[in-house]
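User: I'm writing a tutorial on reading structure tokens. Could you give me a worked example: one chain, its sequence, then its tokens, then a sentence or two explaining what the tokens reveal?
Assistant: Sure. Here is the example chain.
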Amino acid sequence: MDVGELHERTVGEWTRIVAGLDASQWGRATPCTDWSVRDLVNHVVGEELWTAPLVQGATLEEVGDRFDGDVLGDDPMATARTAAEEAVAAVSEQAPSGGTVHLSYGEEQLDEYVRQLAADHLVHGWDLARATGQDATLDPELVEEVAGWFADREELYRSAGVVGPRVADGGPDSQSKLIAASGRDPGWSALD
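And here are its predicted structure tokens:
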């Protein structure tokens, strides 16, 4: 699967789950122990806001601090929807030609950056679904694609503190294994 399609489809999974939120759920706990539902959505929307300028060649210095703090504002659902649409449009336009992006750790291939975004959308989509009592079943094709990419980066991500310790018994299916590899308990529930 090419990275543009992967990104668009994982963002689609994410936006489907965001659309299922109701106003009473913003303060709920998530599998990301330091984040509420609002914090989690703010994190992903912040990444989406960064996507267009970065894939279009902007540096971190050029973007500055405009996406720091609470980016959701008074209408978080509309902000999330718009940010997702803009990120997908930017990646769809830039991905076919490749190139590099400027990230906090230096220059990175656009393809690799987009795969990072796809993984974040997919796994955080699971986080959000579990936190809000929605169906957390992810598209198996996307799970396989992200899991295959992540397998070669898991220890790097863990050593950098990006993901927590692997959960020993992730479960028999690919989705549970990916969730466990990303430092989450596949059985986590907001009701725990």
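What the tokens reveal: The chain has one domain: 3-138. The beta strands are 100-103, 106-109.
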